Amino acid sequence: MEPVACTPATGWEKGQVENRVPFLRGRLFVPKPAFDDLDALNDWLRPRCEKLANRPHPEQSDRTIAEVFEDERAELRPLGWAFDG
After folding, report:
1. Helix axis angle, 38-53 relative to 20-28, nearest 10°?
2. pTM of the model
């Protein structure tokens, strides 16, 4: 694998990831939902995210997004520590 430099905050260089933001915003947050707390938001989001994950994968149409993610999960690296924003 060869590293390829990209410019931070430039969506056209990282389109596969950053193009998903408007897609998911439109699918999940239009119209804008309101919740009393984070737990209520997560309870509302879970079934909607699961429904999206059960769609066909864009590059492996014989599999779902969730199935491909399960294969990739083993390759993910742990965060190491919590982000303190």
Report:
1. 110
2. 0.65
